[in-house]
Fold each of these.
Amino acid sequence: MEGMNPLFLVVLNGAFMFASELFKRVTIPCEISFVKLSSYAGTETTNVIRELIGLDHPLDGRHVVIVEDIVDTGHTMRYTIKKLRDLRAADVRIATLFFKPNSFQYDYPIDYKGMDIGNDFIVGYGLDYDQQGRNLPDIYKIIEP
């Protein structure tokens, strides 16, 4: 992405901790913006993407890297990729801290990923369970009784 001045688009709320660490290491000219999307109720995806805070940058011809905490089914990313392409982004890539390959339902590439995980529901380091647990410094698996 050298020489492209990419726009890193951080998906709130979950990716804020990952984005903070990532940006400490990005050494090329770039910009950052934030969107807030929601598709979960408790530990289950609703398959309905709600845009709570939208994009405020023109994207015509821009190279965009979506920064996400976790890619699970892929519904949210599919929605976001389509929207960015409709806004004429030149290129859309995905950077995620966690990826659940056994839950993923699409064939688009995950360009940058921290690690693959199983289908466990995790919290901490920005990830939540009903808005709780984001402040935990480590990652924990939710165990349902």
Amino acid sequence: MPRSFPLSRVYQLLEPGPVVLLTTSRRGRHNVMAMSWHMMMEFEPPLIGCIVSGRHLSFETLRRTRECVLAIPEAHLGRQVAGIGNCSGRTKDKFAAFGLTPLPARHVAAPLVAECFANLECRVADARWVDRYNMFVLEVIHAWREPGVKAPRTLHHEGYGRCAVAGERLRLASRAR
């Protein structure tokens, strides 16, 4: 028989996708934050909705610059991802502190993360929901992917310091192109 589940933990059941690192840059100062509240909104052009807390330095920078990079790490970067998510860029250079390498992007000032298997350069396409929900709609304007990573083992946040690791692939019927 099913039991009641706390509403405060529902997000653990509907985890939206892999943990990403959101990078920003303003006045030559790079920052990176861990983020798991995001969703695909459109295929072409690729649009991604993401929630960034108004308390974060990344929120302020993204709101002002209207551009960022979403870098997708694999599970072997789990300790760095957790560390990035547990400190503030206001007081720490997170790239240096967690041994990550910023690389220049092609279209935005925010850096790519060399250690991540994929990086998505983004611009804010819609900010109408920022004041109400802290939700930015980003358009991916350039995507990078390491060709040698065929089945990435991505992190999926379950809350309270727990992550699941995805990596097993199933082939199911699809209308995909």
Amino acid sequence: MKADSELAGLVQPSPNHGERRSGVTEPDMLILHYTGMEDGEMALRWLCSERSEVSCHYLVHEDGRIVQLVPEALRAWHAGAGSWKGQADINSRSIGIEIVNPGHDNGYRPFPEPQIAAVIALCQDILARRSIPAERVLAHSDVAPSRKIDPGELFPWDRLHAAGIGHWIQPVPLGGGRFISMGDKGEPVVAYQSLLGAYGYEVEADGLFGEATRFATIAFQRHFRQAKVDGVADLSTIGTLHRLLSSLDRSPFAAA
């Protein structure tokens, strides 16, 4: 196996991969994860173990070392069940990067500077070779909000955006005002659910702020409004979501 990126200092093949499915020949998504394990070597062994049935295309250690495990042309097993913009089988549509971090259950901590610099360089390299829209550079939690929370609210999406990676906008500041949350019903909920769905989250606009809407709200906040992650659709959350939609050239919310 030959590395797809010159930035990969090591190639350590994982047996956990296959051909891309669903008629997908070229990935059009980039999904970022954290490993959620005690250290990088443990994560690497797990990702390369046939018993684990998980893998990724790249692993980025805390000191910035990059390892490639699966060729970009193949389907790595990193995302699991999920969807985005109504499209399932995220694994077939994406390239997956695992970023070494112990995660929320093992002492979640900020990502070191050498690691973020390496993630930025690797993403830039992939995006230079692949047709992946900015708004399809996503967190694992975005595509599987009811199951996953990585890479979490400490991941610096703003840094990546400043380097030309991903879709991001300055969030609306926290403040008072009306909000909607678990158990609320009616047209305001439908409108908010429609905004989440328009951006890509798997939420039915049924007018009930239930678990699916709460999980999608938490995922959105972890990515785009990190100052407060509580699953409540306050004015800051809704305003930030509206700003993101309005900034997409093809969005129905964009200015004429």
